[in-house]
Design brief:
Blueprint lengths: L15 H5 L4 E4 L3 E5 L5 E6 L9 H6 L11 E5 L5 H9 L4 E6 L2 H4 L14 E5 L2 H6 L5 E6 L14 H10 E12 L5 H11 L4 E5 L5 E7 L7 H12 L6 H11 L9
Parallel strand pairs: 4-5, 4-7, 5-6, 7-8
Antiparallel strand pairs: 1-2, 2-3, 8-10, 9-10
């Protein structure tokens, strides 16, 4: 999601079901279709002429997992939206099984509008609560992409310590969690602390071009590759994808900070 409202913690639990099932709004012109929950917050965007192209900058940042897991067997995506990441991975990662979990049935109902492919042996969309799905599938994924915003922002159920601990347990050895956060969200440092606790503080960050989105990668049971190795992987990936992987890798390397340091 590109620009949602900030979300408080405990207060959202009581009304989560209402927000989770809010009717999405479509904005269309000759060039693009976008999915929103209000007139300001863009949930997803698609080019009509190229439905699998990643239109929003933060979605390109979320492909950073390829620096650590170039050929994942199992990819889990929490949050469908317009299916940008789901479609892109389905097209470009033919050896990967992709499961996308979405809590809002009204969002899933728009899958044809956004050219999301039908379910098959390596692609499926599941109508379920993302937090509950994670908790029920330990040691099952190589990569988890977390972009589970609803109409009110980031749910507490997808940002609690319990949830991030569950993500760490759901990843296989060497797995990666990639999460999208909004800079305007005053709770981001809390999220980072919780992710750090769950992943032994093996977290790396990068920013979208407009500095509105912070994308955080957390590494499960693995060491960070050497700088030169990471940059070499980035160069190789740029030959296959229209994504600035070297810029992403450089930002990630620069983001490494001592435990407890909140600067930057």
């Amino acid at each position: 999601m590109a620009n949602p409202k900030a979300r408080s913690g405990d207060a959202e639990a009581a009304d989560r079901g209402t927000h989770a099932q809010r009717r999405p709004i479509l904005f269309e012109d000759d060039r693009m279709i976008s999915l929103r929950f209000d007139r300001q917050s863009v949930q997803s965007a698609m080019y009509r002429a190229d439905p699998t192209r990643l239109a929003l900058g933060y979605t390109r940042l979320m492909m950073a997992f390829l620096l650590f897991q170039p050929v994942p067997r199992e990819l889990l995506i929490i949050g469908l939206g317009g299916g940008s990441l789901s479609k892109y991975c389905y097209r470009h990662l033919p050896r990967t099984r992709i499961t996308t979990v979405e809590i809002n049935a009204r969002v899933i109902a728009l899958r044809d509008k956004f050219a999301i492919p039908p379910d098959d042996t390596r692609f499926r969309v599941v109508h379920a609560d993302g937090a509950e799905f994670i908790a029920a599938h330990a040691d099952s994924s190589d990569v988890i992409l977390l972009d589970g915003y609803d109409a009110a922002g980031l749910p507490y159920a997808l940002s609690s310590q319990h949830f991030y601990d569950g993500c760490a347990a759901a990843l296989r050895e060497g797995g990666v969690l990639v999460a999208n956060f909004l800079r305007r969200d005053r709770h981001v440092e809390e999220y980072l602390d919780r992710m750090g606790n769950a992943f032994g503080h093996r977290i790396l960050t990068a920013w979208s071009e407009d500095r509105g989105n912070q994308v955080v990668s957390a590494l499960a049971q693995s060491c960070l590759p050497a700088r030169q190795t990471l940059l070499q992987r980035a160069s190789a990936l740029e030959a296959e994808h229209e994504i600035a992987f070297r810029m992403i890798a450089s930002q990630m390397i620069s983001s490494i900070r001592p435990r407890g340091d909140r600067s930057g």
